[in-house]
């Protein structure tokens, strides 16, 4: 979006609705921060929990903690409380760039986790697809590097802009005049939307669909008696966990798409 339609995107809430929104989002932030910090502490504190898969989970918890720290407080303050951006030019760039990086890192860590589980189910005996500590560290480094590269253009386009109604009110806005304005903004927004939302959603859909099909059609030799009953119960539990986890991912990405971080998800004047 450009600055011409900022007024159409303004939040219009009553005082009670603002208070309710602040309470709800504050609770979400507190729960998210505490829960994810506990996960990180457990993985770091206890040696037996320092597995490659848990390293990915800890990285996901770190990204989600940063999302809760960077997205909710600044969004609440600038959108509901102040209806402007009083934090200055530097934080305008850094905060929104960091928001984009952490959301992208969270999305691509989910991809890494789903691919790891897919390989574990499809190729349980393969050493080439087995996730090691070194591979996990490499994956985490790649995730954050890709996230930074994709979000980097925001550092160049984010700047302070004045309200068309009052020059004393400042907003953190995107200025695409150097990149052919609408064309540059549209191209980046489309690319960011695909990379942040559609690509992760496609990979998660394919990997968990493959896991579900593998578990559904798998047959264990000699499924009879107590051993057969145990194997069937184990398969049933894995199916339920996979289905539940996949649904959680769908909801997670739906929330991110609705909230948005990249240009086309928010008006140019980010309050």
What is the topological layout?
Elements: H1 15-45, H2 52-81, H3 88-122, H4 133-151, H5 153-157, E1 158-162, E2 170-174, H6 182-217, H7 225-259, E3 269-270
Antiparallel strand pairs: 1-2, 2-3
Describe this entry's structure for a reader:
The longest helix has 36 residues. Helix content is 70%, strand content 4%. The chain is elongated. The N terminus and C terminus are likely disordered. It has a 3-stranded antiparallel β-sheet, with helices on both faces.
How far apart are the termini?
Answer: 14 Å
Mean pLDDT score, rounded?
A: 78
Low-confidence stretches: 1-11, 254-271
Please report the number of helical segments. 7
How many independent structural domains? 1
CATH homologous superfamily (4th level) name: Rhodopsin 7-helix transmembrane proteins
CATH architecture: Up-down Bundle
Largest sheet: 3 strands, antiparallel
- What is the name of the CATH topology? Rhopdopsin 7-helix transmembrane proteins
Number of strands: 3
SSE string, helix = H, strand = E?
Answer: HHHHHEEHHE
Output the strand order for the largest sheet: 1-2-3
Percent of residues in beta strands?
Answer: under 5%
The class by helix and strand makeup works out as: mainly alpha
Overall geometry comes to: elongated
């Amino acid at each position: 979006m450009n600055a011409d339609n900022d007024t159409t995107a303004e939040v219009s809430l009553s005082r009670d609705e603002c208070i309710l929104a602040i309470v709800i989002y504050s609770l979400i932030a507190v729960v998210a921060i505490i829960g994810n910090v506990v996960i990180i502490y457990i993985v770091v504190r206890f040696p037996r929990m320092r597995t490659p898969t848990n390293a990915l989970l800890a990285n996901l918890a770190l990204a989600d903690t940063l999302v809760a720290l960077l997205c909710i407080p600044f969004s609440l303050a600038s959108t509901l409380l102040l209806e402007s951006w009083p934090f200055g030019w530097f934080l305008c760039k850094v905060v929104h760039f960091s928001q984009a990086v952490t959301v992208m890192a969270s999305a691509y860590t989910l991809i890494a986790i789903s691919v790891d589980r897919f390989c574990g189910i499809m190729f349980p005996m393969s050493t080439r697809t087995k996730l090691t500590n070194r591979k996990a560290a490499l994956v985490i480094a790649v995730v954050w590097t890709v996230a930074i590269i994709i979000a980097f253009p925001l550092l160049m386009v984010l700047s302070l802009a004045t309200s068309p109604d009052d020059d004393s009110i400042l907003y953190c806005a995107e200025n695409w005049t150097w990149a052919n304005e609408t064309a540059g903004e549209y191209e980046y927004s489309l690319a960011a939307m695909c990379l942040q939302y559609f690509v992760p959603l496609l990979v998660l859909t394919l990997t968990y669909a493959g896991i579900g099909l593998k578990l559904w059609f798998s047959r264990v030799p000699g499924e009879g008696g107590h051993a057969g009953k145990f194997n069937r119960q184990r398969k049933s539990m894995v199916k339920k966990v996979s289905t539940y986890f996949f649904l959680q991912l769908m909801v997670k990405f739906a929330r991110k798409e609705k909230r948005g971080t990249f240009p086309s998800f928010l008006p140019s004047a980010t309050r």
